[in-house]
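Assess this today:

___
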Amino acid sequence: MTEKMEARNPLVRLMKKFQQGTRPVTHMGPFLPLVRIKERGLPFNDIMRNAQAMTDAALLSFELGFESTVLPFDLNVEAEMLGARVRYHDGFDGSPVYPTIADKPFTPGDDIAIPDALAEKGRMPAILKTIASLRERARDRGAVGVFHSRPLYPGGPGAGYGCALCDAFEATGKSPEAFRTAHHVYQSIDRSLHLCRC
C-alpha cells in the first residue's frame, strides 16, 4: 500500500495513531482484585451492596494500572430490581463466593409486573451512588464503566442469572412479551445511568 493510499485509509490512520505513546489498559467487565480487597480489609459481601465499600473496591482497578473500572460486580442486579431475593454467602475455604438468587419467583411464561421507579429498587441506589462517587474521586484517572448483561431475560427460571443462559435467550426469542419485559427493564436502567452521568 502506498503512503497516499495509507493516508486515505481510516483504519490505517487509526492504527498508526495508537502505535505511538502508551496504549490504554482497560477491562471489559467487572474486575475484583481479591488479594488487594483482603489486604484492605474490605468484606466481600459489603462491596456488593454498600456504596462506600463498592467505591473503594472499584478504585483498586486504577491503583493496579487499569484506565477504567466497571460496576456492578455481580450479575444479579436486574433480577433483584424485579423482586428476586439475593442470597449472600460467607465464602468457602477462605475464598469469597459471589451472591446468588435465593428464590425463583418468575418463569419465562409469567406476566411480570414492572415496578415503578426501578432505579430505587434493590442495590441500584448504592450502584448509582458509587458511580457518582467514582466520577468525582477518579476524575483524572480513567473511565467509569457499567456492565449489565442485556439482552438476557431477567425473569427467567432463576429470576435472572440463576437460569441457564440458553433458556434466557430462548425465552426472549420465542416470546414477544418476554422480550418487551427485558427491554423495559434495560431501558429503565439506561435512563438511571444516564441521569448519573450528568
In short: Residues 26-197 form a domain with the TIM Barrel fold (CATH 3.20.20.210). The CA atoms of residues 24 and 194 lie 24 Å apart. The radius of gyration is 20 Å.
